[in-house]
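Dig into what follows:

_____
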Amino acid sequence: MMVHGSGGRSTGDLIEEVFKDAFSNEYLDKLEDAAVVPGPAEGESIAFTTDSFVVTPVIYRGGNLGRLSICGTVNDLLMRGAVPKYLTCGFIIEEGADVETLKTIVKSMADTAKEAGVLLVAGDTKVIEGHGGIMVNTAGIGYVKKDINISSENAKPGDVIIVSGNLGDHHACILSERMKVDSDIESDNAPLSEMVSKLSSLPVHTMRDVTRGGLGTVLKELSVASETAFNIYEDKIPVSEKVRDFCGILGLDPVYMGNEGKMVTVLPKEYEEKALSLIRSSRYGENAVTIGEVTDDDKGRLFMKTKIGGVRELSVLEGEGLPRIC
C-alpha cells in the first residue's frame, strides 16, 4: 500500500519483514543513510548509497525531479561524513513523457551536480508503458577520511541537537502544488556539501538529513540507535510563518513534514556555538538553531516540551503522510 512508502513505521515494518533478513550483513544491518565499507587501502573507507525519486509533480516551485535526485543522494553520503564524488543515474521513462520536461530535469541534474561538486559517471535509460511519468534512480560514492566515524549510534548524553533551518518547506510546496493552492512556498531541496565540509573540523557524533517522515521520525530513530533519550522544545523548532499558516489551515504537524535540504547535527555541547556559527555561515544554513539535548534517561525515547509547558512523547510517523514527496 502507499503507506509503506511513507518513511514512517509502515516503511520500517516492510524493511524488517521483507528485506533486512534476506540481505543481512554487517554494513546493511546498521540501516544508515549510506553504508561505509572498507576502501582499497588500509584505513580508507568508502560511503555508498542508492535512492529512487518519484516525486509528483516532477517540476515544482524551487526545484524539480532532477535537482531533488542529486540533493537526496549527495546528502545521504554527507550524513556519514563522506566527501561525495561520483553518482550514477537510471531513468525510467513512461511512454508519452514530454521531451522538453525531460530536458529540464536533466539540465537541473547537471547544474546541481556541479554545485555539489560531484560527477555523473554512468547511467541507464528504460522506456516503459505508462502515462508520461518520469522516475530516477541514483547511486552515489564518496570517500571517508581516516578516523571519521559519524553514525546514528554515536549520539551521547550531554550532546546538543541542532537543526540547520526551517522545516516543512518541501512538504508544503508539493502538497500546495497538488491541491492547486495559491502559494509561493518553495521547496528547500539543496545539497548540504558546504555545510558539512565546514562542520568537519568539529567532533560531530551524528548527522541525518530530515526527509520523509520528518523530524519526529528521524530523532526517534536516532534515539533508538544510540540508546539515549532525545529531548526537544516545540518553541525552538524553526518553521517559517508561511508554512506555519499552511499547517494551521490543513491541520498538519511540522514535526512530521518532509524536507529535502535540512539536516540534524548532534555533537558535544561545548561545540554548540561554533557549530551554529559554521552552519549559519553556510549556504542554506542561515536559520540554524539548537532545538534540544541528549540524555541517558528513558533510552530510546523522544520527548518534546510543548509551548504550553506539557510533555509530548513522539514516535515515528504513523500512517501515510504525503506519498511521492521525493
Q: What stands out?
A: The mean pLDDT is 96.
